[in-house]
DNA sequence: TGATAGTTGTGTAC
DNA sequence: GTACACAACTATCA
């Protein structure tokens, strides 16, 4: 009889038993399966200097969501006769160590297309190969395998959603059943230091968190499957779902499924989600279609995964061949005001509070705040906003987050930069009473509804009665939207025009030329405007920022403009 | 090479 | 609530 193998199932994402081909392979003909999760301080160690609780890279809400998911995974594994083996450290040193310590024959983990993971996994595969360990790394995080889609499209990622959808066929179905029994690890772990239980936030060093309002969303596969079935129970709702018709200010009962964090961590398989949506469609008479339908949302995920995989430097402006080179402002004051919900535009600030406290907000709220930070009002680098989202969202996903910031900043995929979300009327359209703003910005809870989206316009008597003096209890608006968005559109127009002109140059030269020429163009524009137009009183703050660090010609010129203002 | 359509804008008029 | 102007871009496909 053939000797039974010892396998190591390395969990990273894919924190589930259902539709998990790597786990199934690990169990196949195994004497021992070692289910491992590495608690990496790079992501988990507290950073007291971070702008909100959490590590340098991850907010405390997502860390907690992860810990809950691990707890649930451990419980499920124990129900199958196994357990989760948690180890503190860096995967790149720990995994190869374990392969030797436990005399592993086969290493199994879900394929991951993110650049960070690609680099890490390539090293691990190399080391495993040198140790004579087989590696099995199937695609199960996404419906499709990005390189397959790219190959089908002649070697490059499709840049429009429609062309992507035409390209891909029906996705593969999920695997039938999760394993009922999993061979346990050997009793003797050969002195490997295993963490006895899933740590709490306190165990990881997060203290004084009592005041922090946590996300209402609980992590884990069990919760994911329950939420999936709850969401899909309403056939009519599923069949009629159209994303743009959702209400971004609905927070007691959000307008979407809120399954994204479970997809992010792989607590829920996208293939199962897709298949179950098809089941529901089959029960209904007719259903909405991509891009707005529920099915369409899953395909957006695939679209951005493919673009992210097929585009060099997808997460940057410079060196990214599909990204418009735009001379955004590197202005920490504007950025931190936006990040810390101090823009003075209640709709924007309320959404940013929801992001910090819940780690989640509706897709359209994300649109609104991203547009505001970049091409709509503040003209700050999209990468800066991306970093804030990346840290705070519980569903933060490299490809989707970068893809959406490229989209919203009109840097790639989308170019209708004249379409700008108003920080005043967009929220008001959905929630004229201002319930959402009052909930997330209690300082404005007594502001009459006619002023709730523009509290600076309330007479001082009204502000006193509402116990909210603008400029004291709540900030004045950072910019006058009418003025700021006009200037932003001018900047975008100039950048687009120059882009056409210098598009053929190598990227760095392109960027230099753009910055140079845009400075000149804008100086003329703004100087002309300043002499012909009276800026409304509410402009108050500078809408032209300064460049940090080195005294570039550009920053000098910008400062001069600011002084002039 | 020209036509077309594109996740998800706002303000105004009727 | 629907239609249109606003001012206008570009990947894709015939």
From TrEMBL:
Q: Where is the Photolyase/cryptochrome alpha/beta domain?
A: 5-143
Which Pfam families does the UniProt entry name for this protein?
DNA_photolyase (PF00875), FAD_binding_7 (PF03441)
Task: Quote the biased-composition stretches of kind Basic and acidic residues, using this chain's numbering.
Answer: 548-565
Disordered, as annotated region: 525-565
What InterPro entries would the database entry show?
Crypto/Photolyase_FAD-like_sf, Crypto/Photolyase_N_sf, Cryptochr/Photolyase_FAD-bd, Cryptochrome/DNA_photolyase_1, DNA_photolyase_N, Rossmann-like_a/b/a_fold
Q: Give the highest taxon in the source lineage.
A: Eukaryota
What are the entry keywords? Answer: FAD, Flavoprotein
Q: Which cofactor does it need?
A: FAD
User: Which PANTHER family does the protein's record reference?
Assistant: CRYPTOCHROME, CRYPTOCHROME CIRCADIAN CLOCK 5 ISOFORM X1
Q: Which family does it belong to?
A: Belongs to the DNA photolyase class-1 family.
Q: Which protein are we looking at?
A: Photolyase/cryptochrome alpha/beta domain-containing protein
Q: Which organism is it from?
A: Sphagnum jensenii
